[in-house]
Amino acid sequence: MHISITTELLGEHPQLLEINAPEYGQEFTSWVRGGDGLVGLGVFKKHVVTGSNRFADAQRWWRNEINSLEIHNNVHGTGTGPVLFTSFSFDPSEESVLLIPEVVIGRRNGRAWITWIGAKPQPGLHSLKPKPAPLNLNWSGSNGDVWQERVARAVSKIKEGELEKVVLARFATATCDHPIQTRNLIHELAREYPSTWIYSNSGLIGATPELLVRLSKSLVTSRILAGTIRKTGDDERDLALAGSLARSSKDLEEHEYAVRSVADALTPLCSSMNVPESPFVLHLSNVMHLATDVTGVLNDSATPIDIFDLVSRLHPTAAVCGTPTNLAKQTIDEIEGISRGRYAGPIGWIDAHGDGELGIALRCGQVSDDQKSIRIYAGCGILAGSDPEREYAESQAKLLPMRTALENH
After folding, report:
1. pTM
2. Which end of the chain is less enclosed by CB atoms within 10 A, N or C?
3. What pLDDT is stored for residue 94 in this prediction?
């Protein structure tokens, strides 16, 4: 028996992050940047995958689900029709979440559409304006001295042998008296960081500036970020800092590893690629990053390549793991001492044609099931020239988006 799924144009152009439909419950899934993107309401199906084959297992499950649907798509184009929201773990041993919402609303280049599952008429949508709700936060987490010792250990390993770079993460935990309102967090992040992708999936909420991979028909895009400096708020001073970041040998070396890992992964699948020789400086509200946009065109092949195939080759990149990948991952397992969960894993959406957008889950937090606590994460790329104290300061800057969003909740 096939289940009906329908896509129609929306006459009005909704503010995606303000959409609400109480009849679909509290589950709100999002991938939005600058007002464009996709949001999901409710849950039609949710599925968990684990293990080293999790991308192939997810691909197989999604294709089976598509085959069970009777699709009526009057809009067409990437992101229309059935959509799967994905949130993969960093480590294969941990759980990755696949979610098909009951309703998906999309917006791109001034055009909006709605997709819903079931034979009922098009669902009504309402506007939700979250109200601030103070949380009385109580912070705890990894001791700064302990983390700096771990950074020093990583630097020693790099100086001793074949390891060139490793990314070490840390977390902080906030507990609170009242339930965390995830929609409040989403709105705060969108207001403060409009140039990032605002995402939420099964309690994981964040604002990432890093696009792991976008596939639209046969065009592949990846935005790589590596090399960071904190902003001061003084425009003249920040301009000087941007110049120093662009000339920093340590940051340029870190960036080169990250770009090389993405280019090497995509090259076998692409007939042509563009890898810029030099990065640009990406300015965000609180930090600046060295950034490079890599693009390519997929090969014509007998077996079509979709975004699952791309992400399985790309993850984990040097930007979140290190170089060489295997040695870096071993070092993370040995030194880091935390569970990353879905932090630093691929997150985003995939449509019925295998096109989609997946970012890296950075600047994020995982809300607990009872919504009374949240764990927020940050990581830093460690090289032979890394200074533990400076890396700790950088990690603090990377925790700031979520801390501020929670304090303004």
Report:
1. 0.95
2. N
3. 98
With the CA atoms of 314, 318, 323 and 328 taken in that order, what torsion angle do they form, in degrees rounded to the nearest 10? -90
Nearest to 147 by CA among 130, 121, 169, 165: 169
Residues whose CB is less than 8 angstroms from the CB of residue 57 and which lie 6 or more positions away in sequence, other chains included: 49, 51
Burial class (CB within 10 angstroms; exposed 0-12, middle 13-18, buried 19+) of 221: middle
Please name each of the domains of the chain with its CATH number: 3-119+136-407 (3.60.120.10)
pLDDT at residue 284 in the model: 86
Closest CA to 26 of 182, 185, 134, 192: 182
Residue 188 to residue 373: CA distance in whole angstroms = 18
Which is the catalytic residue, given 65, 188, 210, 256? 210
334 is catalytic: no
DSSP 3-state of 351: strand
Residues of the chain short of pLDDT 50, as ranges, are: none
Nearest one of 344, 333, 318 to 165, comparing CA atoms:
318
Scanning 48-206, the segments in alpha helix (DSSP H) are: 54-67, 144-160, 182-192
Joined tokens for residue 203: 């309690």
Q: What is the pLDDT of residue 141?
A: 77
* pLDDT at residue 131, rounded to an integer: 80
Active site residue 165: yes
